[in-house]
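[recover] target loaded
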C-alpha cells in the first residue's frame, strides 16, 4: 500500500493526473476529441517529434543535450527531396539521408566525447550549421511530387487504422524501454549521467558511449526527417524548424533531470501524452499555433523549475531533521550526565 501511495505521489503520478484532467476537459469542450480518428491524428501530427524524444531521453540522462535534432531532421528531408528531384531513386535518397544523419551525430559526438567541448555549444553550432546546409540545398523552393509508396508511409494506414510511423514509434518505444531500463547499456547511461568522472575511473569507456549516443541521435533524427517528408509530401528549407522545443519539453516534463542521471521512459511516455493531448485540444478549439508554442514553452520552464524547487525543499527538510535529531541527542546526553 505504501509503495502504491508513493507511486501516486511521484512525478509520474502527477503527470497521470494532469493527463486525465486534460483529456476530460478536451472531451467536454470538443466532442470530436474522443473519436478514434482524432486519437490517431493526435499522434500522427507529432509522430516525428515523439520518435526523436526517445533518443533525446538517452542523451539528457547521460548528462548531455542535443539542440541540433530538428536541423538534422530538416537536412535529411531536404537531402531526400533534392536527390529525388535530380533523378536519384527514392530508396537511395533515403539511404543517403540516413547516412547524413549518422555523420551529423558523429560530428557532434566527436567534439563532445573526445575533445570535451560542452554539448550545449557544439549542438547549438550544429543546429545553425545543419539548418544552413538544408537551406542552401533547397533555397527558396518547395520540392514535392514524391512516389506514391513514399507518401503512403506517412499518410496512409498500414495495419488497420494505424499508419507506418505510429507502428514504428511503438516498436522503437519498446526497444528503448528495454535498453534503458533493463540492459547493461542503460545502466551505463545512468552511471555516466550521474557522475562521468567516477564512471571513467571505474574503467567505463565514457567517450565511446557518448559518441554512440550522439550517432544514434543523428540517425533517429534523420529517420524522423524522412518520415516528415513522407507525411507532408513536400519539403522546404525550414522543414522541422523549431521542433527541438517540443522534443526537449517532452523529455524534461517527463521527469528527466536536465543535469543527467535520473529519469525514465515511463515518465517521458506520460509527458508525450500530456503535450499531444494539450496541443490537440487547443487545435480543436482553434487556438493559434503561436499560443500553443507559448504554452509548451511555459511547460518547459516549469519542467525544469519545479523538480529543482522540490529537490531544494527536500534537502532543506532533511537538514532540519538532522539538526533536530542532533539537538535532541544533545539534550538527552546532558540530562543523563
Amino acid at each position: 500500500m505504501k509503495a502504491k501511495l508513493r507511486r501516486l505521489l511521484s512525478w509520474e503520478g502527477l503527470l497521470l493526473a494532469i493527463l486525465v484532467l486534460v483529456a476530460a476537459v478536451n472531451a467536454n469542450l470538443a466532442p470530436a476529441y474522443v473519436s478514434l480518428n482524432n486519437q490517431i491524428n493526435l499522434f500522427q501530427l507529432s509522430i516525428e517529434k515523439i520518435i526523436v524524444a526517445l533518443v533525446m531521453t538517452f542523451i539528457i540522462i547521460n548528462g548531455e543535450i542535443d539542440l541540433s535534432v530538428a536541423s538534422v531532421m530538416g537536412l535529411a528531408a531536404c537531402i531526400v527531396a533534392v536527390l529525388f528531384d535530380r533523378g536519384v531513386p527514392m530508396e537511395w535518397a533515403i539511404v543517403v539521408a540516413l547516412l547524413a544523419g549518422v555523420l551529423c551525430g558523429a560530428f557532434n559526438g566527436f567534439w563532445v566525447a573526445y575533445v570535451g567541448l560542452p554539448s550545449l555549444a557544439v549542438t547549438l553550432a550544429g543546429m545553425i550549421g545543419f539548418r544552413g546546409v538544408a537551406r542552401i540545398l533547397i533555397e527558396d523552393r518547395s520540392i514535392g511530387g514524391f512516389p506514391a509508396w513514399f507518401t503512403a508511409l506517412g499518410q496512409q494506414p498500414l495495419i488497420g487504422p494505424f499508419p507506418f510511423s505510429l507502428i514504428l514509434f511503438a516498436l522503437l518505444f519498446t526497444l528503448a524501454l528495454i535498453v534503458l531500463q533493463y540492459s547493461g547499456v542503460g545502466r551505463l547511461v545512468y552511471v555516466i549521467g550521474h557522475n562521468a568522472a567516477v564512471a571513467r575511473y571505474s574503467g567505463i569507456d565514457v567517450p565511446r558511449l557518448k559518441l554512440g549516443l550522439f550517432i544514434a541521435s543523428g540517425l533517429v533524427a534523420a529517420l524522423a526527417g524522412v518520415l516528415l517528408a513522407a507525411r507532408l509530401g513536400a519539403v522546404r528549407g525550414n522543414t522541422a524548424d523549431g521542433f527541438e522545443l517540443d522534443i526537449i519539453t517532452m523529455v524534461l516534463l517527463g521527469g528527466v533531470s536536465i543535469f543527467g542521471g535520473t529519469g525514465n521512459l515511463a515518465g517521458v511516455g506520460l509527458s508525450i501524452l500530456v503535450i499531444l493531448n494539450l496541443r490537440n485540444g487547443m487545435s480543436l478549439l482553434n487556438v493559434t499555433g503561436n499560443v500553443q508554442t507559448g504554452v509548451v514553452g511555459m511547460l518547459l520552464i516549469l519542467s525544469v523549475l519545479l523538480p529543482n524547487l522540490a529537490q531544494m525543499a527536500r534537502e532543506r527538510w532533511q537538514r532540519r531533521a538532522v539538526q533536530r535529531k542532533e539537538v535532541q541527542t544533545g539534550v538527552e546526553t546532558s540530562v543523563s550526565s
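[recover] notes: The radius of gyration is 23 Å.
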